Amino acid sequence: MSIAPESHAQEQIANRFCSVRRRTLALCEPLTAEDMMVQSLPEASPVKWHLAHTAWFFESFVLGPLLPGYRLFRADFPWLFNSYYQSFSQFPEKRLRASFSRPPLDDILLYRKHVDDAVERLLESDPDPEVLRRIELGAHHEEQHQELLLTDILHAFFTNPLRPAYLDEPADYGRSRPAAASGTLFLPFGGGLRQAGSAGHSFCFDNELARHKVWLEPYALADRLVTCGEFAAFIEDGGYDRAELWLSAGWDAARNNGWRAPLYWTPQDANWTLFTLRGEKPLAEMQHAPVSHVSYYEADAYARWAGKRLATEFEWEAAAEPEPVQGNLLDTGRLAPAAATPTEELPDGELHLRQLFGDCWEWTASAYLAYPGFKALPGSLGEYNGKFMSGQMVLRGGSCVTPAAHIRPSYRNFFPPETRWQFSGIRLAV
């Protein structure tokens, strides 16, 4: 992780810290203590662990080293809630996090309050810039876990035989976005020598640096994401049975895991239902929404079937850089991908890419690698992005559970190509 050289004012960072901490607790309000213990796949974590780990981050990297006289809440928490910082301490196996019935939830909530009170004291003590940088970093780290909390609870509820909803639908749910997606247009981009990476004027993670030049050939991007209905046509055409469409590792993953549709699609009465944070939905109701929870391999196979390809991360960023960061993000409260706004309703009369931010993270054709001049932060904080630069693919744009203040055109998400439990979708390119 990293922070751009210029830091926000102390008051802004204090307000951000408080709002982020409140939102994490608000996301837990629909859940029971039993819900918060579930870890339904090895990649996920229980909600209770997310609550503790995000407090651990502030205690370990802000309060411990930077607040004189700070006292640990409990001596065993620094290793118990460490995620993967090898140079910081040992830690339990990730797949065992659901076994942490102790400490109880009440202790975790007291831990968060203990940390919050200490951070607020630190903020009131005329802190130096390094304190502010680390608190801002911790707020962005917690926003990542807010998204993970929701993706993890979605999978947990999907594996529950009762298929409970995280939230009921609001009264205006069906009217908050158009019911149908318009046709796809491919918008051309001229290519040429472009800049990629953060310009350094606000917060960024270290994997967004250093800003550097890339050469792009002329290209075109679909103006919206691939829909559930369009992906259903791929399934009906035997897409999961046609080896010529798949990368070799993808074909093996599909066969070995029994993939016949995106994650959360269930066959029912010769059709499909889709499980969402707001419960089970028939495909007919979701057919114009973007397809979500597909792996890189499925996205790539679909693109080949459609006679197109996936964009590189640099093509995506060059197209997104001048656009405002707005869309169906966590702040809308929708909590599910939604159909694209019709092109003809764009206010300036020009054609723009739709759904650039929010709805679904977009798989790109780019492997997750270091930029030229990449430098991780010193010490344990540097053990975040750089050590995962192998065997992962880049996703761009955020999803319907990404906080709006967290995303930006240079943001690089990354997951192994077989990952399906994230809100990951498809934008085609030519």
Total strands = 15
What does the radius of gyration come to? 22 Å
Please give the largest β-sheet: 4 strands, mixed
Structural class by SSE content: alpha+beta
Q: Would you give the CATH topology of the largest domain?
A: paralog of FGE (formylglycine-generating enzyme)
The side-by-side strand order for the widest beta sheet comes to 13-12-11-14
SSE arrangement, N to C: HHHHHEEEEHHEEEHHEHEEEEEEE
Q: What is the count of helical runs?
A: 10
CATH superfamily of the largest domain: paralog of FGE (formylglycine-generating enzyme)
Low-confidence parts lasting 5 or more residues at pLDDT below 50? 1-7
Strand content: 5-15%
Spatial shape: globular
CATH class of the largest domain: Alpha Beta
Description:
The protein is an alpha+beta fold. It is 31% helix and 13% strand. It folds into two domains: 10-159; 173-429, Alpha-Beta Complex (paralog of FGE (formylglycine-generating enzyme)). It has helices at residues 10-28, 47-66, 77-80, 105-123, 129-159, 228-236, 248-257, 283-286, 296-305, 313-320, and strands at 186-189, 192-196, 212-216, 219-222, 265-268, 271-276, 279-282, 309-310, 327-328, 357-358, 361-367, 393-396, 413-415, 424-425, 428-429. The protein has a four-stranded mixed beta sheet with strand order 13-12-11-14. Strands 5-6-7 form a three-stranded antiparallel beta sheet. Helix 1 packs parallel to helix 5, helix 2 (47-66) runs parallel beside helix 4 (105-123) and helix 7 crosses helix 9 (296-305). The chain is globular. The model is unreliable at 1-7 (pLDDT under 50).
